[in-house]
Amino acid sequence: DAGVIQSPRHEVTEMGQEVTLRCKPISGHNSLFWYRQTMMRGLELLIYFNNNVPIDDSGMPEDRFSAKMPNASFSTLKIQPSEPRDSAVYFCASIPYAARGNEQFFGPGTRLTVL
Amino acid sequence: ELKVEQNPLFLSMQEGKNYTIYCNYSTTSDRLYWYRQDPGKSLESLFVLLSNGAVKQEGRLMASLDTKARLSTLHITAAVHDLSATYFCAVDRGGSTLGRLYFGRGTQLTVWP
Question: Is B42 at the interface with chain A, CB within 8 A?
Answer without folding.
Answer: yes
